Amino acid sequence: MSDLEKVDVVDKNDKLTGQTITMGEAHTSVIPHRISAVLVFRSSGKLLVQVHAWHNRRLDHSVGGHVSAGEDYDTAAKREMEEELGLVIPLSKVAEGVWSDEYYPKDNKRVVHVFGVFVAEVPNDWRFKETEEVDMIVEMTVEEIVAMMNESPDKFLQGFMTSLGAYLRHIGSELKINAYGKNWGKL
Fold first, then answer.
1. What pTM was estimated for this model as a whole?
2. Which of 21, 52, 131, 152 sits at a 20 to 30 Å CA gap from 60?
3. CB neighbours of 4 closer than 8 A, spacing ≥ 6?
4. What is the CATH superfamily name and number for domain 6-179?
């Protein structure tokens, strides 16, 4: 999605305000708008983690992207799955309306995203093939990811902390993501 593409503005309760703006304006003016994120697992339990080419190689959820104006979380998640990983597989919704106030000190940038979070399991025979949007995927256990988030949070996009925190809450995990002075499982 380019900075000129349109997104819907949402309020603090994730309700559409009726206002549509460009993604660039939403980011520059710190206006809340929606993101769909998908955590894609192998049957072994390992999570596919995107090495984000557009954000200084920071680690990110398996699949994610802005919800276009007029689109819902489910439609955006399916679209992003196909665009980023070439997959058309069933998704299960974990949460929606998850607020994420993100500040990146190294970039001096703040954005507010509101997440819909999904999970999926990739077929055993699926192998990653580089796409226009994703050039690298690494496989990690959730425990490895949480430990790394707690030790080196600047290696991750904060939206991934939000989506993984929502997932951990959903499954009732004892694992906690504590970075940048926040408990990312209690947002």
1. 0.93
2. 21
3. 22, 23, 24
4. Nucleoside Triphosphate Pyrophosphohydrolase (3.90.79.10)
